Amino acid sequence: MTLTFQNLRKHYGSNVAIDDVSTSFAPGLIHGIIGPNGAGKSTLINMTAGSYTVSSGAIHLDGSNLCGLQKFEVANQGVARTYQNIRLFDQMTVLENLEVCYYPQAVGQAWKEILWPPFATEREARRRAACMELLSFFNLQGYAEAEAGSLPYGRQRMLEIARALVTNPRVLLLDEPAAGLNHHETAELTSRLAALKSPERVMIIVEHDMDLVMSLCDRIVVMHHGKLLFEGTPAEVQASTDVQTAYLGTANDIDDIKAAAEDRRAQLGIRARRRS
To answer: Do 184 and 152 lie in a common domain?
Structure first.
């Protein structure tokens, strides 16, 4: 099972966001996509998840073309995602945010749950147990009955990832999962994501936190002006003069870039505290 981009292009009129990108993502590894703002990172995620249409080229998952499918059809193919800005069902409980993901599977057997109460009880118990197991993995079990919108910002980030995992996806797309997290929360997130690596799953992370990317990812794709600039291991990316010039800058620029990332995290953290 491999996710493959083949001569992928996305343009808005004369503005080319993705320009002839071809690469592949293997299961069993954690892949990172990095690049400056506007490089096309999130556009790749949005096209893969069916949120954006593809102008030309193809996205194949295990030989099946995902292009042209509706978002729910892409999800049914085993693709799950998170967003830069958290999108939870704020008025529902933490547990309900996970349970609702079982609806597509349950709708066809709703009549059976209505007519045969023992069947409904058994299915509900199994759903709850599976969801509680996920919540425990992300240390959210104590929040199960709380409204999702009442959670601290960092817990909401974890909940969104937990919800994406309910259907046991073959492809997990994470768009800036560390945005707005403090150092302790980022370290916890890194540990949880590392534990999610599976030979049955493709994991792709778009992230600005270079420490997280370099410590977590097995392979990294570097985007620049919509093009694939470089791909390789973290060590190879760090050693590439093309990457240093286009993205990391010179050695003297790296501290400035890290400072800018810290400022971005601080701004998102202030916004999160105001929200909570």
So the answer is: no
